[in-house]
UniProtKB/TrEMBL annotation:
Organism whose genome encodes this protein: Vreelandella nanhaiensis
InterPro entries with a match to the protein in the record: Peptidase_M18 (IPR001948), Peptidase_M18_dom2 (IPR023358)
Protein name, UniProt field: M18 family aminopeptidase
Record-linked NCBIfam families: PRK02813.1 (NF002759)
Keywords, alphabetical: Aminopeptidase, Hydrolase, Metal-binding, Metalloprotease, Protease, Zinc
MF terms in GO: aminopeptidase activity; metallopeptidase activity; zinc ion binding
Signal peptide, first to last residue: none
PANTHER family reported in the protein's UniProt record: ASPARTYL AMINOPEPTIDASE (PTHR28570:SF3)
Length: 434
């Protein structure tokens, strides 16, 4: 295999991860790169005028995004890449202010399948979107990112919990509220007003609503004697969003290609902007009307002539927990992208789509691995089966291996970033899918 450590790409990855503490920030960061590359913004509420050979993007809920490029000739097929913008975490409750032992705390609700223990004793920032009303009655939605450490969830001393290392349950209602300020009277609304003024110059606005969550402010880093690893929050699944975007931007534009990054995968995808919602289907219908055959018949033909690669990280073989993997299906870090297979359709891969990806990796000079859960363990899922069910497009599930999935800080291989990007570029550029 050719050299796979790409320092420039890893720098861009770390910048993207740092800029993307929430799905809304991730979508904004992606739109900025797309616009710099010449992609034109579309609005769902406007009439679309699509032109062959051009590139476009559209967002929904400001947290999901679809970017696509049209070939200069007739659109007969789309090479699709799928990922998701959300990650498990701690989100604020609407009436978040609470006090205990002379401290201002904020009540949280758990978003997704969070690994709670690593959240203790971390420097936490706060980010999300806020809706405000100006003095003239105008409503505005703005992004907020308090990047400095303003909160922490302190551990209980081992002297007061002698059995803690033997394992104990963590109660998110009573034990996970971060502390922000030593006060029994300060209001979160006052802090929020201060941050809005600092970041947006807003004064005398009413906060109408918000969606905010805590995150670890420790920046991404390259770890290991030879920098074999990248460690960061939200690698699941911003790493796939980044790799898919890199591949799309570096593709030659000869083929019809589409990248979709949905919100709400970690909570089941059942939303208007999630993979179970109509977002992708709506865009495909409009593309077909504009530059396809325009009929329901031609839409079905387009979808069945296309392929979706669902990109979501895989469970890498853990050196301290080797027994958690099937001994023949333990993907190694920096061993190349992983084809994820499940007979019960928790992953959408079948032998046809799996064979296609193996051939793509061969052409890209990239190693490829397989993952199957142990027969005595349950299996997670991705947007792959959901997209296949909702849209009907032939689909496979792949991803790069990682450790500590759903932790506040996750780990993946630096060479795998380059491996998967290369493979996806070949997929987007191939004159023929099969």
């Amino acid at each position: 295999m050719s050299e796979a450590f790409n320092a420039d790409r890893l720098t861009r990855l770390c910048d993207f991860l740092r800029q993307s503490p929430t799905p809304w920030h991730a979508t904004q960061a992606m739109t900025e790169r797309l616009e710099k590359a010449g992609f034109q913004r579309l609005e769902e509420t406007a009439n679309w005028q699509l032109t062959s050979g051009q590139r476009y993007y559209v967002t929904r809920n400001d947290s999901s995004i679809i970017a696509f490029q049209l070939p200069s000739g007739t659109l007969k097929t789309l090479r699709m890449l799928g990922a998701h913008t959300d990650s498990p975490g701690l989100r604020l409750k609407p009436n978040a202010t609470q006090y205990s032992a002379g401290w201002l705390q904020l009540g949280v609700q758990v978003y997704g399948g969070v690994l709670l223990a690593p959240w203790f004793d971390r420097d936490l920032g706060l980010a999300g979107r806020v809706h405000v009303r100006h003095f003239d009655g105008r409503m505005e939605s703005v992004l907020l990112n308090v990047e400095r450490p303003i909160a922490m969830v302190p551990s209980l001393a081992i002297h007061m919990d002698r059995d803690v290392n033997a394992g104990r349950a963590i109660n998110p209602q009573t034990q996970m509220a971060p502390v922000l300020l030593q006060s029994d009277s300060a209001k979160f609304s006052g802090l929020l007003a201060t941050w809005l003024e600092e970041q947006h110059g807003m004064r005398d606005v009413d906060v109408v609503d918000f969606e905010l969550g805590f995150y670890d402010v420790q920046p991404p880093s390259l770890v290991g004697v030879r920098q074999e690893l990248v460690a960061s929050a939200r690698l699941d699944n911003l790493l796939s969003c980044f790799i898919g975007l890199e591949a799309l931007l570096e593709s030659d534009g000869s083929q019809g290609a589409l990248l979709v990054a949905n919100d709400h995968e970690e909570v089941g995808s059942a939303s208007a902007c999630g993979a179970q919602g109509p977002f992708l289907g709506d865009v495909l219908k409009r593309i077909n009307v504009q530059v396809g055959g325009g009929s329901e018949e031609s839409l079905i033909q387009l979808i069945q002539s296309s392929i979706m690669i669902s990109c979501d990280n895989a469970h890498g073989l853990h050196p301290n927990f080797r027994d958690k993997h099937d001994e023949r299906h333990g993907p190694v870090i920096n061993g190349g992208p992983v084809i994820k297979v499940n007979a019960n359709q928790r992953y959408a891969t079948n032998s046809v789509t799996g064979a296609l990806f193996r051939d793509v990796c061969r052409e890209a000079d990239v190693p490829v691995q397989s993952f199957v859960t142990r027969a005595d363990m349950g299996c997670g899922s991705t947007i792959g089966p959901i997209t296949a069910t909702e849209v009907g497009v032939p689909t496979l599930d792949i991803g790069v291996p990682q450790w500590a999935m759903h932790s506040i800080r996750e780990t993946a291989g630096t060479r795998d970033v380059e491996y998967l990007t290369r493979a996806l570029k070949v997929f987007l550029n191939r004159p023929a899918l099969y």
